[in-house]
């Protein structure tokens, strides 16, 4: 199972899981943090801004970031959950969870997007991250189209934690 959270929801969610790998997606301008109290297994931290187009003085997600996200998902083992978080638990972490689920389950892009919306009415996956993963995985636009079809999530400053299945069909 993939667990997705905001930064503020991370401690409680992490405490509820026995074993997990942690993927941290925060902006480079954030304060350095000591993750040793939360990360119990493998921990990957990626720093980039939550933007969907190139913007001067900001770091956009790129193929290097998305390769690291996909590699994180590919390194999952059955007895550990994947826990992904970003600042608000809405955009970067949801795009990463969607990309990992799609990587594991070719042909289920639309079903995974629908399930993502069903489990989390507020998510708005970062479109640039989704497009990069779509291109890297050779999905011919199916991932981007599915995310465009579910549309922007409900307005909120911070999302609630949710889970997305790692294996399909569910």
Which terms would index this structure?
single chain, 170 residues, alpha/beta, Protein-Tyrosine Phosphatase, Chain A, 5-stranded mixed beta sheet, 6 helices, 5 strands, 36% helix, globular
Descriptive report:
By secondary structure, this protein is an alpha/beta fold. It has one domain (2-164): Protein-Tyrosine Phosphatase, Chain A. It has helices spanning 10-16, 63-74, 92-104, 109-119, 127-136, 142-150, and strands at 2-6, 20-26, 43-47, 81-86, 162-164. A 5-stranded mixed beta sheet has the order 3-2-4-1-5, with helices on both faces. Helix 2 (63-74) crosses helix 3 (92-104) and helix 4 packs parallel to helix 6 (142-150). The longest helix is centred in the middle third of the chain and has 13 residues, at 92-104. 40% of the residues are buried.
Q: How many structural domains?
A: 1
CATH fold group: Protein-Tyrosine Phosphatase, Chain A
- The rough form would be described as globular
How would you classify the helix and strand content by structural class?
alpha/beta
What share of residues are in beta strands?
15-25%
User: In CATH, what is the class?
Assistant: Alpha Beta
CATH architecture descriptor: Alpha-Beta Complex
Distance between the termini: 11 Å
Q: How do the SSEs run, as a string of H and E?
A: EHEEHEHHHHE
**Spatial ordering of strands, largest sheet:** 3-2-4-1-5
> What is the arithmetic mean of pLDDT?
96
Low-confidence stretches: none
Estimate the helix proportion, in percent.
25-40%
Number of strands: 5
CATH-defined superfamily:
Protein tyrosine phosphatase superfamily
Radius of gyration: 15 Å
How is the biggest beta sheet arranged? 5 strands, mixed
Question: So how many helices?
Answer: 6
């Amino acid at each position: 199972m993939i667990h997705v959270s905001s930064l503020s929801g991370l401690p409680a969610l992490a405490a509820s899981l026995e074993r997990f790998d942690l993927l941290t997606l925060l902006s480079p301008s954030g304060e350095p943090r000591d993750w040793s109290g939360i990360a119990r297994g493998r921990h990957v931290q990626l720093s980039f801004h939550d933007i969907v187009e190139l913007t001067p003085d900001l770091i956009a997600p790129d193929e290097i970031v998305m390769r690291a996200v996909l590699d994180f998902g590919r390194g999952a083992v059955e007895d550990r959950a994947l826990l992904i978080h970003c600042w608000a638990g809405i955009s970067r972490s949801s795009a990463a969870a969607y990309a990992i689920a799609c990587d594991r389950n070719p042909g289920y892009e639309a079903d995974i997007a629908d399930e993502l919306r069903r489990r989390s009415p507020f998510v708005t996956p970062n479109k640039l991250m989704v497009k990069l993963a779509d291109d890297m995985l050779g999905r011919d636009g199916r991932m981007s189209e599915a995310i465009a079809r579910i549309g922007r999530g409900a307005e909120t400053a911070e999302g609630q934690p949710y889970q997305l299945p790692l294996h399909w069909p569910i």
